[in-house]
Amino acid sequence: RGAPRPHARKPKAPLSQSPSRCGIASADPSARMAPTAAALSLDAAVGYSLAASLAYSPPAELRRGSGGYQQRLAPRLAFSQQVEVDRLRASATLFEMEEQDGVCVAFRGSTDLKNYLSMFNLFFEPSRLGTAKGGRVHRGYQEASLELYDRLSPLLASRQPQRLAFIGHSYGGGTATLCALAHAEAGGEAGGEATGSSVDEVVTFAGPRVGDTQFAMRYDELLGERTTHYVHDLDPVLAQNQPLWNALGFVHTGRRVRCAAAEPRLLADGDPSLGAPLNFADHGRYLGTVLGPSPAGWGQG
């Protein structure tokens, strides 16, 4: 996309040696090889959930920095700026990782009818992400992601962060996943023109499946070991969507990790279910964090 080539970058610490801090990928190398193993520490996962919640906040709220979630994240993450595709109401918020000279890009979930229209535009179309153009993807998510990435790409090329994470909740998980792939394709990981940074982590909470088998294979080739999708048993939206995604041919990417809704706790695949997915509010509760367009979701409570 015509981005300038990067300047010399300081070498990154290996992921397995990174501290267990929010916005910093902390991983066990053996766990990264297992699709259902949690590569992130619990502390990092909770930190990302707080940032995903703050993506629902308007810039004026974030500039004040007085919300409870922002105070919990400080000084690890600090608000930088927010970009939006007005006609689709798709949005992404950039946070600075102060200790790692990095950037966390948090994609907002659904807040508007236009988001739901985009979600329900679930027909497949050929992928137009980056150079590979492999497989087919969700039409609505691709439209929003391409326009968001057009706004994000020059910011990331100018900033050239040493660490980079793409995160999101629900609808924002879909746009985070596709924008991460677009950046990986454009940023040298696929041999394309470099934009100055690679993708270190992709983290979603209640994120959707966004492509077919061929797409998932291409995605996992580049980002599978760096991608974690958090899910929990009480989420009714995920429970209802799984059969639909199966029927339409949407395929999982990365690793899926079970967690609790009301507390910061990770679960093994063999752990018993925490209950039935009956309460829609549980779609916006992950690891004890409230995610959504509400005062609590903005981290004010």
Task: Explain what the structure shows.
The longest helix has 21 residues, at 139-159. The protein has helices at 29-32, 42-54, 59-64, 68-73, 113-120, 139-159, 171-186, 213-223, 236-248; strands spanning 77-85, 90-97, 102-107, 124-126, 136-138, 163-169, 201-205, 227-231, 255-259, 266-267, 285-286, 289-290. α7 (171-186) links the parallel β6 (163-169) and β7 (201-205). α5 (113-120) crosses α6 (139-159) and α6 (139-159) packs across α7. Mean pLDDT is 83; it is low at 1-38, 190-196 and 295-301. The protein is built from 9 helices and 12 strands. It is of the alpha/beta class. The radius of gyration is 17 Å and the shape is globular. An 8-stranded mixed beta sheet has the order 1-2-3-6-7-8-9-10, with helices on both faces. Strands 4-5 form a two-stranded antiparallel sheet. It has a two-stranded antiparallel sheet with strand order 11-12.
**CA distance, first residue to last residue:** 41 Å
- Compute the average pLDDT: 83
Largest sheet: 8 strands, mixed
Order of helices and strands: HHHHEEEHEEHEHEHEHEEEE
Low-confidence stretches: 1-38, 190-196, 295-301
What features would you highlight for this structure?
disordered N terminus; 9 helices; about 300 residues
Please give the structural blueprint.
Layout: H1 29-32, H2 42-54, H3 59-64, H4 68-73, E1 77-85, E2 90-97, E3 102-107, H5 113-120, E4 124-126, E5 136-138, H6 139-159, E6 163-169, H7 171-186, E7 201-205, H8 213-223, E8 227-231, H9 236-248, E9 255-259, E10 266-267, E11 285-286, E12 289-290
Helix pairs in contact: 5-6, 6-7
